[in-house]
Amino acid sequence: MLSDIEIANQANMLKINEVAAWLNVNEDDIEPYGHYKAKLSEALYGKLADKKDGKLILVTAINPTPAGEGKTTMSVGLAEAMAKIGKKAILALREPSLGPVFGIKGGAAGGGYAQVVPMDDINLHFTGDMHAITAANNLLCALIDNSIHQGNPHRLDERRILFKRCMDMNDRALRSVIVGLGGKVNGFPREDGFQITVASEIMAILCLADDLADLKARLERILVGYDLDGNPVYAGQLGGCGAMAALLKDALKPNLVQTLENTPAIMHGGPFANIAHGCNSVRATKLGLKLADYTITEAGFGSDLGAEKFFDIKCRYAGLTPNAVVLVATIRALKYNGGVPRPELTNENVEALRKGAVNLKTHIENMRKFGVPVVVAINRFHTDTDAEIKVIEEVCAECGVEYSLAEVFAKGGEGGRDLAQKVCAAIDANEGKSEFHQLYDVKLPVKEKIGTIAREIYRADGVIYTAQAEKALKEIESLGKTDLPICVAKTQYSLSDDPTKLGKPEGFEITVRDMKLSSGAGFIVVYTGDIMTMPGLPKQPAAFAIDVDNDGNISGLF
Is 520 within 8 Å of 140 (Cβ atoms)? Predict the structure, then answer.
């Protein structure tokens, strides 16, 4: 059996200008990065302004498990399958972060015969967007410390600086650090810390910005900390936001690549859904809607994180109306939710599957609360038995949704024909009857918005606030910044904030331990449980298996 990278290396890729031509994009509107990837020009937006939008399909999933669900693989396979049934589709995906690539989760280019290529480029440096975001973030950090060193004209309180440095790598040793050691010439010592680049507010800003002017305005609104009198200090007061925007100018342009079957894919932005809003850029999604009849996008992790934020943050700000939701699950992942140990997941266990299917039911119910049609995609494995498939059929019938057994990993677009047909049918049946809506009104009090998410999506009995969370909320209220959506940072492994509670946990409360105003991005981050914004590497990092030969050929990359 070939590895993902071996399959990708055998791909018959089109030159990127040919991919663009299929979308009716001329060569003047692409900026090639080699033969197989390109930036899409700023001018392209204006040229497409009057064109009617296509249909928007969100791909999400049940809570992730060690067994894997294959959400990106399903997104790619669905886009390829659309072509098989005569539909013009495009992908709008997130860029991978180097942290998971060298850690444990892997990349974000799909797998098997449903991949985006060139896979090795995409999963490594790609077009440099992650580096640009890292540089812009750390420029602001340097400006903060330089302001303090140069006489502290803004009277920044060194104990209340909120904006952290970042790097796109898993490095637990950098979570909490002391900077400025070594004497007067090195600045003032203070506590600081790093977060992974995808958790940076700069990443969120890039993904939510309408254009360069909006990007600059959002950068200026970043709350960097407080002065000695307790007044807020914003990035715009420090200066340098123009320089940050200059670093991000090219990164703001979406990237065009292709799938193994030459279906166009726009990959842009990459915030994690467990610590950020978890969606690709607004600009990429809006371009996709103008360029094709169907745009297939995804939101990170389970629907309790990525999809909720896609609807309540991204769609709210961008004015998007999704036409369908594809909810991805695997039979083995549902058995894991039913208590089956990982080594035994390939064995038939109908009883455990029925027990674990409550997780699938809950996600179906949650998605319907937004008024969007749902189709379940079962990422099929050869170990799935007829008796187990019968359980899925019964569960979906009970919930009143269509389901499809998809084999896109093994067969590419051909393995997703049935799914593509059922998604299109669901969209057609709902044509002119859209009931899409957000879960809450942003003008509600912060605790009421958090309570709505906890009750309606996580199914919690209530919310507990620590003293630190209460203090942070009072500060946000004092700034008059409460009319913003909520971005919950929570474990992806459970509907609760406890990663060990699988299935559909009951009789629990969510603990909010802190809050942070992301004024530039335009949301309030709510930290629950033990979630961290700088991951660590596992005992056996994926980096151990990755290598490159003397001819430059990369191996071990999944």
Answer: no
* Closest to 513 (Cα-Cα) out of 531, 500, 496: 531
> Is 239 in contact with 139 (CB distance < 8 Å)?
no
480, 525 in Cβ contact below 8 A?
A: no
- Is the omega angle on the peptide bond into residue 485 within 30 degrees of 0, that is, cis? no
* 3-state helix/strand/coil string of 364-404: HHHHHCCCCCEEEEEECCCCCCHHHHHHHHHHHHHHCCEEE
User: φ, ψ for residue 179 (rounded to 5)?
Assistant: -110, 165
Among candidates 99, 103, 165, 105, which has minimal Cα distance to 135?
165
Per-residue pLDDT reduced to its tens digit, 124-168: 999 999 999 999 999 999 999 999 999 999 999 999 999 999 999
Tokens encoding 220? 């200026």
Distance CA 327, CA 543 (A): 31
| Per-residue pLDDT tens digits for 194-244 | 999 999 999 999 999 999 999 999 999 999 999 999 999 999 999 999 999
φ and ψ at residue 433, rounded to 5 degrees: -125, 25
How many angstroms separate the CA atoms of 224 and 162, rounded? 5
Tell me: the pLDDT tens digits for 227-237?
Answer: 999 999 999 99
390: Cβ contacts below 8 Å, ≥ 6 apart: none
Number of C-beta neighbours around residue 354 at 10 A = 16
| Residue 327: closest CA among 355, 272, 365 | 365
- Ranges of the chain whose pLDDT falls below 50: none
- Residue 377's H or E segment, with its range, is strand 374-379
Query: What would the pLDDT profile of 38-56 be if each residue is shown by its tens digit?
Result: 999 999 999 999 999 999 9
Nearest to 303 by CA among 146, 495, 483: 495
Count Cβ atoms below 10 Å from residue 73 Cβ, excluding itself.
Answer: 24
Helix (H) or strand (E) holding 486: strand 486-489
Q: Can you say how many angstroms the Cα of residue 316 is from the centroid of all Cα atoms in its chain? A: 16
Residue 255 phi, psi (nearest 5) = -105, 135
Longest pairwise C-alpha distance within the chain: 73
| pTM score | 0.95
For residue 151, with 0-12 CB atoms within 10 Å meaning exposed, 13-18 middle and 19 or more buried, which class applies?
exposed
Q: Are 331 and 353 in contact (CB under 8 A)?
A: yes
